[in-house]
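Q: Sequence in, structure out?
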Amino acid sequence: MTATQRVFIACDDLFFRVNLEARVRSVNLEPVGVDTLEAVNAALSAGAPRAAFVDLHLRGDQAVPIVERLSNAKPGMPVICFGSHVDQDLLDRARRAGGVALPRSRFVREFPSLLAKLGVGTLTTSLQDPSAPVRPEKPE
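A: Exactly. Output:
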């Protein structure tokens, strides 16, 4: 697959990550695991992905640097982060680093529609407003 068909996933929770990877594959995109900044840099050497999903609770406090690196890799590329709704400081730091930071519950609820948009190439960083609903467009 080309770099634009890849989706980076930074999540060290094995059960959650396997679910994310399966769903990414379901829209004919290739999931690439990048749980460290070194892994991100190595994967970026093959080109920027179509999008990235980052668990803000990665071990080693690497999540925000990963968000920043990915956000700077390709302007306009969606870097969607998720974390605990009670950790507003972490969500805010991810936003300042260039990510779209969502509470985990909202991310889980809206992940299918995010993927549907990504699969047809219409997911953009217009999700920047964390209070804005993210829903698939209704057919006309």
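The mean pLDDT is 82.
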